[in-house]
Amino acid sequence: MKTAAQLESNSARLDYLDAVRAFALLLGVVFHASLSFLPIPVGWAVMDIETSPFIRGFILVSHSFRMALFFLIAGFFSHMSFHRKGGGAFLRQRVVRLGVPFVAGWFILWPLIVSGWIMGGQSLSGEVQVIAGLKGGFAILKELPKGIFTQTHLWFLYYLMMITAGVLASRIILKWTGRGYDRLARMLDSTLAWIAARRLGIWAFILPTAGLVWLMRGWGMDTPDKSLVPVLRITLVYGGFFTLGWALHRNRETFVRLTKLTAGKVLLAVVASGLSVVLSSVQADLSHPHFTAMRAGFVLCYATMMWSLVLVSIGTFRLLIRRTYPCIRYVADASYWIYLVHLPVVVWLQVTVAEWPLPWSVKWAFVSLASILIGLASYGLLVRYSWVGRLLHGRRVSSVKRLEKTVSAPTIPGQFPVR
Questions:
Q1: Is-contact 168 175, C-beta < 8 A?
Q2: Nearest to 150 by CA among 191, 198, 195, 114
Q3: What one-character DSSP code corresponds to residue 143?
Q4: Which of these, 354, 388, 349, lies nearest to 372 by C-alpha position?
Q5: How far, in Å, CA of 364 to CA of 174, rounded?
Q6: C-alpha neighbours within 13 Å on the C-beta side of residue 221
Q7: Per-residue pLDDT tens over the stretch 156-210
Q8: Three-class SS of residue 97?
Q9: 216-246: per-residue pLDDT in tens?
Q10: How much is the CA Rg of the chain, to the nearest whole Å?
């Protein structure tokens, strides 16, 4: 009987990992949709009349691992693409699929996001003026180059490009050393195999991550969206996840063993998440007699939560998705587009429902689902088979065109069309 790693190595496309990537991106939509329901002001576009303390826990937990999960999967698929296409083709693809959306997306989305903030401010006085909000949003472009390419959710593309370039540059430099690259690769492979084979091996990842989380400005991962100057501590965290994914692609058995879903990993994730939420309540109490000790405990729990949830997420999707589901593959293709365009939609919907006399949970679900459905609809109607779709994920052939090719294929009398 073939092992899971052997089965994966025979698959041109790993559907469960596509689903993991889609989950990480769509969780970001739900994350942003929750911010207007926080019971305390956080500088978001609008604050809903219905709030809940539950949202604070959701934001803390979901923010801890969703981007880490994305960067690990990005590293895994990047290594796959690099060795399948070659270095030159891979670099061209990265520039097109990451650089173009980052630059073009910023100029399109930033004014729309600002208009949402303007309309959120208008809602406080009870008069939301959409046209005025849009005009004010696009007027922000007159201030360029001040603030260019900052203050949006597209920062992850910027960091992904930097980290990818760093990994490739390191690879080239090590290759120049002759045997140094091969020696380091074997050492890394054996180290990862040793970690994956031990129950407590995950702590080799948790402890250095906790040290970097300690250096963050807030309690948890900072969001580097205010400047184009790379933040070292954030680059090291997400770069570590990307590099791990890159290395694990050529070590399938290690990858499967490391991400195997176990009761121990689930229990660790639950306990670490609960303790992180409890300890985070001390964040605003600077006069707490044990403030430093509580923050140290939080940092350790946070790093544990981050790693355990990343591994549990991958293991769960591997367990649930064991064959190809066309709908899941479609959503996986669409998820990148949905995340790119979702933030203005989320903010506008939050402003729309802010005064509705409905429970916060209903409005949160509405904003989340409506944003995702709008993204799916626009992807299917405008993106999937267009030049934008080719830019984002490569060419996709519609079922109609596929059928036309089948029908028009040359046939042998008395037989089915040749495929």
A1: no
A2: 114
A3: G
A4: 349
A5: 49
A6: 24
A7: 999 999 999 999 999 888 888 776 778 888 899 999 999 999 989 999 999 999 9
A8: helix
A9: 999 999 999 999 999 999 999 999 999 999 9
A10: 23
